[in-house]
């Protein structure tokens, strides 16, 4: 199962995938090109069923790490002969950046709303299989987000006002 | 209102769509908004996101579509909207491989990578390098060098990572010109920059061993802060130690070991993982690494537990004793919720298991969640069952039942193959379990979707079936396949039936009837086989299944030659000559070639020797020893010897490599001279030609000495003889002259008695001992004065006799002064040998170990041979 010593390389990540609660792909980036779509879908299906709520498993010789919240499942798939802690660091960075972006909880609605920024986050974390950054704050600071407040709609503003009120009462 | 919107969204997602999903044509249509002026950045961002989403769902654009969209997208550089610009970079990267003339955006990207807007710079560099060819790269070389050493970490990282990609894009030469910049980046404070720089520097220097070694020795002393860079450095160091064969006392190893005490878990794990996986690691070093991993086992982080147990699982194969210290922690993991971790923990425990009761308990536990784990882990479970079967022959029945249950469940090909292989192993090693095993396999092929497995099992049934009490049972199973399966399986069934028919005379007529029905089969191959076998069986020829003893390469080339001729004379199989396949020596520093796995049972050398027609009639190879080096590794000619033991002969295969680039060797042979007179060479096959960097084998065949002479132990002195022709080092063309004969003295090697004895595992020693009886029994007492402990003496005896220690009798409990060692083996002539040795050692006395050895055999001369050779 453990394949022993591995080649020293930076090219360690094979895919990053986001699925919804039913195991449907929302986003998927595969870094080993030339995989047929059908294969990718089949892989995602087994991944979703075999992983369940677990944090980590081996599948087809690859190390798969997983984190989920409400209706979102994030996966980082790395080559099986590399340090698995690299992949969990990457996954945590991805998750942290998303939660900084969504401010509240990491869930599907927020993800769809800001899909464009999510694309950028992915791009900042991993470049063609090489890990670019593993610090969620650093990734977030590199996004082009400035004064995004004017984009908020009324209900979101209301919600944040409520939250602030709640916190001030709780103090 | 809020609630209603919610429901609408849910409806959307139920169909797998959301606001970004759209038809490909409509999205491409919408992309026309890019061409409108003035630009609407918000709208454009949305459309671009839709496009990215479309591609991400697996949609592929045609080259024309991609090119159109790409060019429209380039107009978006006019906008200064930050979000839009960033999305454009992504779009460029996505379309770079499908669209034409992507080079057009070079100048826009160059402007961004050198501009004031920091947020643009790193992504612009990465986008640019994605589309760059050697020409463009040369134009921006100056900017790239600046970017690599930029203070901004993301810019430097972006540039370094892009360089790594460029190495594979045909721009390696240009990137190799920047080592100074990369070196400077390596001293950066930014953890990721350090990591990327080290990775790039290694890739640039990979083929220069000296440079890599300098790199390592410099940075192992220098305090590398980034844990990622440190992990990479550990990997580099271990690769170096492994490649160069350094021992564990070198400074490099000390560095790796010091990393076990690092404060970052990732570094600690990497170091521990590398240490236990290196060949040079001894038990004490491995012990320290295992101690660290043991701490991880009780970590609250699942990831750490997983990593640690995965590595321990591997260590358990080589150093089971060391891993035993972790047993308590492993036991706790079994009940955890993560099935992957639990499975690895159980299989590790199985590997270290020392008694049969614990094995049974673990097997029960693993059974409870077999259905929940992935195929990968199931294969791990099967593998550990396989090793258990070897260790505890008594448990084979239980294991077989367990395997059969797994065979009935769902699973992929790899998993089923592992199970079938294990069952076949048990069948081969244990006669008692053969029928049960065959029964399970028969049941399996009743409903088997994997053709190759079915074929494998059918051929096994054909060889093993006739040896059972009731072969007709298997005829029924095979015939069922013949009616129900695809052509490949039907063809295999026909062969299997025919083989049983020919080996069981009472079934021959029944088989003939069955085969006649296949004469009308719709598949050519099946029909042909049926007709062929029918004919042979009707003639009453039982000599049907002797194997082809020809060189396959030789046969192929001879047949090709024959086809070129006018074919007036019939093909003559005796004309086939043996041509050794000339192997090119490995090219220097292959790029990450996965190591070829040689399964221990099948030996490449054995295949080579069997391809020599002269040796084909010697029969089957009894044993093949691992190669022994007869030269120092760095000499002009490198020679290794491989001993093949046949029934009545010994073939020595000399594997020669020529490392002199201006010499062509001809007529290369080795002359071994036995120091013991009983050995006679009967046949020699030289190598005709051996060019620079080529490896080929010459052979010498000896008649085995007479059994009663007891002359099996003998040293051999060797001389390499050959004719040297000088040749041009560049072309390898020899000069015109005839060359001159030369000799080269090789080192001595030995053939010993243990070479002629095969280990026999899984023997029920007590019963076999009684069965053989005292007819051919000899007994003698020796004083082994050279050994100071029982364990040492046992190891030596085992080594000397080359026999298998039954019932783990090679392990002496600490502090005991007497011990009984029982050994089992088969001699080359087929005689069975059982040895019982009583050993006694009194630590207060100095005169070593006293041994009383009793040998029983079914061959009267063997006990004497064994005892005299020991004396």
Automatic annotation (TrEMBL), chain A:
Segments forming domain AP complex mu/sigma subunit: 13-147
Gene3D superfamilies linked: 3.30.450.60
UniProt record, GO biological process: intra-Golgi vesicle-mediated transport; intracellular protein transport; retrograde vesicle-mediated transport, Golgi to endoplasmic reticulum
UniProt keywords, alphabetically: Cytoplasm, Cytoplasmic vesicle, ER-Golgi transport, Golgi apparatus, Membrane, Protein transport, Transport
InterPro entries per the UniProt record, alphabetical: AP_mu_sigma_su, Coatomer_zeta, Longin-like_dom_sf
Compartment(s) where it occurs, according to its Swiss-Prot or TrEMBL record: Cytoplasm; Golgi apparatus membrane; Cytoplasmic vesicle, COPI-coated vesicle membrane
One Gene Ontology CC term in the entry: Golgi membrane
Ribonucleoprotein in keyword set: no
Membrane topology, as annotated: Peripheral membrane protein
Stated family: Belongs to the adaptor complexes small subunit family.
PANTHER family: COATOMER SUBUNIT ZETA (PTHR11043:SF0), ZETA-COAT PROTEIN (PTHR11043)
Complex formation: Oligomeric complex that consists of at least the alpha, beta, beta', gamma, delta, epsilon and zeta subunits.
Role summary: The coatomer is a cytosolic protein complex that binds to dilysine motifs and reversibly associates with Golgi non-clathrin-coated vesicles, which further mediate biosynthetic protein transport from the ER, via the Golgi up to the trans Golgi network. Coatomer complex is required for budding from Golgi membranes, and is essential for the retrograde Golgi-to-ER transport of dilysine-tagged proteins. The zeta subunit may be involved in regulating the coat assembly and, hence, the rate of biosynthetic protein transport due to its association-dissociation properties with the coatomer complex.
Entry protein name: Coatomer subunit zeta
Native organism: Galendromus occidentalis (western predatory mite)
Lineage, highest ranks first: Eukaryota, Metazoa, Ecdysozoa, Arthropoda, Chelicerata
Gene: LOC100901568
TrEMBL record, chain B:
InterPro entries to which the protein is assigned, alphabetical: ARM-like, ARM-type_fold, Clathrin/coatomer_adapt-like_N, Clathrin_app_Ig-like_sf, Coatomer/calthrin_app_sub_C, Coatomer_g_Cpla, Coatomer_gsu, Coatomer_gsu_app_Ig-like_dom
GTP-binding is among the record's keywords: no
Role: The coatomer is a cytosolic protein complex that binds to dilysine motifs and reversibly associates with Golgi non-clathrin-coated vesicles, which further mediate biosynthetic protein transport from the ER, via the Golgi up to the trans Golgi network. Coatomer complex is required for budding from Golgi membranes, and is essential for the retrograde Golgi-to-ER transport of dilysine-tagged proteins.
The keyword Transport is assigned to this record: yes
Similarity remark: Belongs to the COPG family.
Location in or out of the cell: Cytoplasm; Golgi apparatus membrane; Cytoplasmic vesicle, COPI-coated vesicle membrane
Molecular function in Gene Ontology: structural molecule activity
Alphabetized SUPFAM superfamilies for the sequence: ARM repeat (SSF48371), Clathrin adaptor appendage domain (SSF49348), Subdomain of clathrin and coatomer appendage domain (SSF55711)
Gene3D superfamilies for this protein: Coatomer, gamma subunit, appendage domain, Leucine-rich Repeat Variant, TATA-Binding Protein
Key words, A-Z: Cytoplasm, Cytoplasmic vesicle, ER-Golgi transport, Golgi apparatus, Membrane, Protein transport, Repeat, Transport
Domain Clathrin/coatomer adaptor adaptin-like N-terminal: residue ranges: 24-540
Phylogenetic lineage: Eukaryota, Metazoa, Ecdysozoa, Arthropoda, Chelicerata
Subunit record text: Oligomeric complex that consists of at least the alpha, beta, beta', gamma, delta, epsilon and zeta subunits.
Membrane topology note: Peripheral membrane protein
GO BP, one annotated term: protein secretion
Domain Coatomer subunit gamma C-terminal: 754-869
Pfam families documented for this protein: Adaptin_N, Coatomer_g_Cpla, COP-gamma_platf
Domain of life: Eukaryota
Name assigned to this protein: Coatomer subunit gamma
Residues covered by region (Disordered): 1-26
Biased composition annotated in UniProt, kind: Polar residues: 15-26
GO cellular component term, pick one: COPI vesicle coat
Biased composition (Basic and acidic residues): 1-10
Residues of the Coatomer gamma subunit appendage Ig-like subdomain domain: 605-752
């Amino acid at each position: 199962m453990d394949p022993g010593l591995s080649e020293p390389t930076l090219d360690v990540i094979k895919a990053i995938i986001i699925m919804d609660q039913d195991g449907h792909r929302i986003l998927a980036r595969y870094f080993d090109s030339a995989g047929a779509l059908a294969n990718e879908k089949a892989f995602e299906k087994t991944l979703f069923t075999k992983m369940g709520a677990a944090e980590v498993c081996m599948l087809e010789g690859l190390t798969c790490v997983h984190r989920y919240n409400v209706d979102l499942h994030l996966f980082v798939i790395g080559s099986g002969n590399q340090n698995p802690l690299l992949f969990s660091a990457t996954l945590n960075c991805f998750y942290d950046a998303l939660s900084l972006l969504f401010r509240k909880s990491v869930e599907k609605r927020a993800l769809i709303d800001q899909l464009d920024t999510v694309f950028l986050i992915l791009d900042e974390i991993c470049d063609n299989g090489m890990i670019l950054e593993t610090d969620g704050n650093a990734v977030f600071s590199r996004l082009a987000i400035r004064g995004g407040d004017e984009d908020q709609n009324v209900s979101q503003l209301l919600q944040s006002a409520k939250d602030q009120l709640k916190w001030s009462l709780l103090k | 209102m809020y609630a209603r919107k919610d429901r609408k969204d849910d409806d959307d997602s139920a169909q797998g769509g959301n606001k970004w999903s759209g038809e490909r044509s409509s999205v491409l249509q919408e992309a026309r908004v890019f061409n409108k002026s003035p630009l609407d950045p918000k709208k454009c961002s949305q459309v671009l996101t839709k496009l990215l989403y479309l591609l991400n769902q697996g949609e592929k654009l045609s080259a024309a579509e991609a090119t159109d969209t790409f060019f429209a997208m380039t107009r978006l550089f006019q906008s200064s909207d930050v979000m839009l610009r960033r999305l454009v970079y992504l779009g460029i990267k996505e379309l770079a491989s499908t669209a034409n003339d992507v080079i057009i955006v070079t100048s826009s990207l160059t402007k961004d990578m050198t501009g004031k807007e920091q947020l643009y710079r790193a992504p612009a560099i990465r986008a640019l390098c994605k589309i760059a060819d050697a020409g463009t790269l040369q134009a921006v070389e100056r900017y790239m060098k600046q970017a690599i050493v930029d203070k901004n970490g993301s810019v430097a990282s972006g540039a370094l990572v892009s360089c790594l990609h460029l190495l594979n894009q045909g721009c390696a030469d240009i990137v190799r010109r920047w080592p100074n910049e990369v070196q400077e980046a390596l001293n950066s404070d930014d953890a990721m920059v350090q990591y990327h720089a080290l990775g790039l520097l290694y890739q640039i220097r990979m083929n220069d061993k000296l440079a890599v070694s300098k790199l390592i020795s410099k940075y192992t002393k220098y305090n590398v802060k980034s844990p990622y860079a440190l992990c990479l450095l550990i990997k580099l160091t271990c690769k170096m130690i492994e490649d160069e064969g350094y021992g564990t006392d070198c400074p490099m190893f000390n560095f790796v070991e010091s990393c076990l005490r690092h404060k970052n878990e990732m570094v600690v794990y990497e170091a521990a993982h590398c240490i236990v996986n290196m060949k040079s690691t001894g038990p004490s070093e491995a012990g320290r690494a295992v101690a660290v991993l043991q701490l991880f086992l009780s970590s609250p982080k699942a990831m750490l537990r997983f990593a640690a147990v995965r590595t321990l699982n591997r260590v358990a194969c080589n150093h089971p004793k060391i891993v035993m210290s972790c047993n308590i922690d492993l036991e706790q993991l079994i009940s955890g919720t993560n099935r992957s971790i639990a499975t690895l923990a159980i299989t590790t425990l199985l590997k270290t298991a020392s008694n049969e009761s614990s094995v049974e308990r673990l097997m029960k536990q693993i059974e409870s969640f077999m259905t929940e784990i992935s195929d990968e882990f199931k294969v791990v479970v099967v593998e550990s069952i396989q090793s258990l079967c070897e260790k505890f022959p008594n448990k084979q029945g239980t294991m077989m039942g367990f395997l059969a249950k797994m065979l009935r469940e769902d699973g992929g090909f790899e998993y089923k193959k592992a199970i079938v292989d294990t069952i076949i192993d048990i069948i081969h090693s244990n006669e008692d379990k053969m029928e049960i095993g065959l029964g399970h396999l028969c049941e399996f092929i009743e409903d088997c979707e994997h053709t190759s497995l079915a074929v494998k099992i059918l051929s096994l049934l054909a060889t093993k079936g006739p040896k059972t009490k009731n072969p007709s049972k298997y005829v029924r199973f095979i015939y069922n396949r013949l009616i129900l399966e695809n052509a490949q399986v039907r063809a295999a069934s026909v062969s299997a039936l025919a083989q049983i028919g020919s080996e069981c005379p009472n079934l021959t007529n029944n088989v003939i009837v069955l085969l006649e029905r296949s004469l009308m089969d719709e598949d050519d191959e099946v029909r042909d086989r049926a007709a062929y076998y029918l004919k042979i069986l009707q003639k009453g020829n039982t000599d049907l299944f002797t194997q082809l003893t020809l060189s396959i390469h030789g046969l192929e080339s001879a047949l090709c030659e024959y086809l070129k001729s006018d074919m007036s004379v019939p093909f003559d199989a005796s004309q086939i000559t043996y041509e050794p396949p000339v192997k090119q020596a490995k090219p220097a520093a292959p790029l990450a070639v996965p190591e070829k796995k040689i399964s221990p049972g099948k030996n490449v050398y054995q295949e080579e020797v069997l391809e020599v027609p002269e040796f084909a009639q010697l029969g089957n190879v009894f044993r093949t020893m691992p190669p022994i080096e007869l030269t120092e590794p760095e000499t002009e000619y490198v020679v290794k010897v491989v001993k093949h033991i046949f029934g009545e002969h010994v073939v020595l295969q000399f594997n020669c490599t020529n490392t002199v680039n201006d010499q062509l060797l001809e007529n290369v042979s080795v002359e071994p001279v036995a120091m013991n007179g009983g050995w006679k060479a009967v046949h020699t096959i030289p190598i005709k030609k051996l060019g620079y960097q080529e490896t080929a084998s010459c052979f010498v065949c000896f008649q085995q000495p007479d059994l009663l002479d007891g002359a099996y132990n003998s040293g051999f002195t060797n001389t390499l003889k050959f004719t040297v022709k000088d040749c041009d080092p560049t072309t390898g063309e020899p000069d015109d002259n005839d060359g001159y004969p030369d000799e080269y003295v090789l080192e001595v090697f030995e053939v010993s008695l243990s070479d002629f004895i095969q280990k026999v595992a899984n023997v029920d020693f007590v019963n076999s001992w009684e069965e053989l009886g005292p007819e051919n029994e000899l007994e003698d007492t020796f004083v082994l004065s050279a050994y100071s402990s029982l364990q040492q003496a046992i190891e030596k005896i085992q080594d000397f006799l080359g026999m298998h220690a039954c019932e783990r009798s090679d392990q002496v409990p600490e502090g005991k002064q007497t011990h009984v060692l029982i050994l089992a083996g088969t001699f080359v002539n087929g005689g069975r040998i059982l040895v019982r040795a009583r050993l006694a050692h009194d630590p207060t006395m100095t005169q070593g170990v006293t041994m009383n050895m009793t040998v029983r055999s079914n061959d009267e001369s063997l006990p004497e041979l064994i005892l005299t050779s020991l004396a």
